[in-house]
User: What shape does this take?
Amino acid sequence: MSVLEVKNLKVSFHTVMGKVEAVKGVNLQVNSGEVLGIIGESGSGKSVTSLAIMGLINSATGLVESGEILFEGRNLINLNEKEMCKVRGDKISMIFQEPMTSLNPVVTIYKQLREVYKIHRPNKKNNCKDELVELLTKLNIPDAKGVLNKYPFELSGGLKQRIMIAMAMICKPSFIIADEPTTALDVTTQSEIINLLKQIKEESNSGIMLITHDLGIIAEMAQRVAVMYYGKVVEECSINDFFDNARHPYSQDLLGAMPENFNGRFKSIEGNVPNLYEDIKGCPYYKRCKKRIQKCENSQPPMMDLNDNHRVRCFRYEKGDGK
Ligand SMILES: Nc1ncnc2c1ncn2[C@@H]1O[C@H](COP(=O)(O)OP(=O)(O)O)[C@@H](O)[C@H]1O
Ligand SMILES: [Mg+2]
Assistant: This one.
């Protein structure tokens, strides 16, 4: 059953150089108990999509132009800030990329975690310590009692990320977004955090949207994958189809750039994601695509269903299976 559904989401920003559309009509769906992996180069709109779901697009510069974010029968886009506050951190929560900057440096861990109770479980706010010790211990945080009395600077990066994860888990949300949760961490700590996310996935029935550029993490965690490019989803399929049968040339190039495919030579995708200020008529991957056909230069490919569980935005599949 789908826990969250994003339909035709468009988000734009006003900048000194003019208006840019960072998310250009994204459709996504996450089922409960499932991890949807989101991948794609930097700048493809992954974080903006998640911030829009959380209702955190700064209205001073950004605007959700259109679309629907359906959660528990409501369109979150229509909620006002007060209503959204009730949902955020309670029913849906987010683990950010930077644990260092997401925690308040001058407030103890206990007080920061207690804030969640103050907002969402006010009746428990004065005696939440035991519950917090239990939660932190469950999340493999050693000496949970001691950690609660510490300030963020006294903790390692990995421990701070565990605290961020604990904060996201306090109210047992039914939908969690993890935006590059391991990017700022060293490799050993990364695998500890991944194990922790796996544990959460197994123990809860939450739907998880996991954003990462690490295909290894995707392989370990996700059941389905959505590949984003230039503000749109360009392919969506099961994890097995992604690794064995990816159809979009961009997905294929991403897979080709995995370390085990280097064969001693570093292989990367040449070129860059187009600038959002550029006026692009055709497929945004056209310039970099090794499989482009003439049509791709001047018209945008629509999303095509290859089957019930596999969609791809590429003209090669217009007439069925054009590998
Ligand atoms: N606050 C902002 N102001 C202006 N442009 C923004 C802002 N946030 C994001 N963008 C634009 O949206 C694009 C996509 O950003 P983002 O979603 O953060 O990418 P990523 O896929 O790396 O997470 C960026 O390349 C940038 O051009
Ligand atoms: Mg990002």
Residues 46-47, 179 surround magnesium ion (ligand 2) (CB under 6 Å). DSSP finds eleven helices and twelve strands in the chain. The chain has a mean pLDDT of 91. Residues 200 and 206 are 8 Å apart (CA to CA).
